[in-house]
Amino acid sequence: MDKPTRRGRERAATDQDIRRTARKLLVERGPEAVTLRAIARELGITAPALYRYYGSRDDLVEHLRLDVVADLAAELTEEISGLPDDGAVQLFAICRGFRRWALTHTKEFTLVFASPTGEVGSAAGSVATLNRANEPFGRIFLTAAGHLLANFQLEIPPAEAVPVELHDDLTAFQDDLLAVLRESGVDFPPEKLDLGTTYVMIQFWARLYGHVTLEVFGNYPIPMSKPDAVFDALLADLAREIGLDAS
Predict the structure, then answer these.
(1) Which H or E run includes 53?
(2) Alpha carbons 102 and 155: distance in angstroms, whole number
(3) Within 13 Å of residue 15, how many CA atoms lie on the same side as its CB?
(4) For FRET with 190, which of 20, 42, 48, 83 sits at 20 to 30 Å CA-CA?
(5) Could you give the CA distance from residue 230 to residue 223 in angstroms, rounded to a whole number?
(6) DNA-binding region(s): which residue ranges (predicted)?
(7) To 5 degrees, how large is the angle CA 118–CA 121–CA 127?
(8) Residue 203, SS3 per DSSP
(9) Which of left, alpha, beta for 60 (phi over 0: left; psi -120 to 50: alpha)?
C-alpha cells in the first residue's frame, strides 16, 4: 500500500483539528456556537479556508452529528458487552444508558436529538432519531429490540388495533428495520415484524425519547425529587405493556 502523501497527512490532521474544535465549541457553548467563523478564529485560520474540507456549515454540522452518534453507540456497546445475551436485559440497559448519556451530554443531545431542522443545521439530517435506523445508535437500539422480538413471546396488539392512518408509514418502515436486523446478524423471522410489532416499537421509542427530552430540558410537568424512580417506572410500564420485566 502506498504511503499517504505529506499533503494528505496534513489534510487529515487539519480535518481532525476542525472537528475537534467544533466539538469543543459545541460542549462549551452549545450548538449555536458551532460556526465556521468561530472555528476558524479558534484555529487561527481564515473562514474561507474551511471550505476546502466542508462545503457549508450544514456539512460540518452533519459530520459533527455523526461523530457524536458514533461515540454514543460505542459507549452503549461497551456498556452492554458484559451483559447476558438477552434482548430484554440489553434493551433496557440501552434505555438507561441513553438517558444517562443525555443528562451528562446535554449539548451533544441537543445537536443530535433535539435540534429543529432549520436552526442548528438546515439540512434534512439535522435530527437523528430512529428514522435513521442504519446509523450506529439506531442500529444498536434496533438490534437489541430484534433479539427481544425473536426470542420472546410478547404481547403485541393485532393489526386491526393499529390506526389505519398509520399502516402505510409503518409498512414502509418495516423494510428499513428488516434490513438493519439482517445486517446486524440477528436471526429474525420476517413474519414477526407485523403492523402491531412495528407500532409497539415506534410507541416505545416515542415515549422513551419524549421522557428523556423533557428531563434534559427541565420541562417535566412537575418538580421531581427522585427522577431515577420516575424513569424506572416508565420502563416498567413499557415492559409490562408487552409482557416483560424491565428490572
Answers:
(1) none
(2) 30
(3) 15
(4) 83
(5) 11
(6) 35-54
(7) 90
(8) helix
(9) alpha
Distance CA 46, CA 237 (A): 53
Contacts of 205 (CB under 8 A, 6+ apart): 129, 130, 141
Per DSSP, the three-state class of 165 is helix
Tell me which residue of 142, 61, 140 sits closest to 108, measured CA to CA.
61
* Stated length of the chain: 247
**Measuring CA to CA, which residue among 14, 68, 72 is closest to residue 46?**
14
Q: How many CB atoms lie within 10 A of CB 227?
A: 14
> Residue holding cell 449539548?
107
Residue 218 backbone zone (phi > 0: left; psi -120 to 50: alpha; other: beta): left
In angstroms, rounded to a whole number, what is the distance separating the alpha carbons of residues 247 and 88?
Answer: 9
- Contact between 98 and 210 (Cβ < 8 Å): no
Distance CA 166, CA 235 (A): 24
Amino acid identity at 74: A
Q: What is the DSSP-derived secondary structure letter of residue 111? A: H
The 10s digit of each residue's pLDDT in 205-246 is 999 999 999 999 999 888 889 999 999 999 999 999 988 877
Rounded (5°) CA angle 46-70-78: 140
* 225 phi, psi to nearest 5 deg: -80, -20
The two counts, helices (H) then strands (E), for the chain are 9, 0
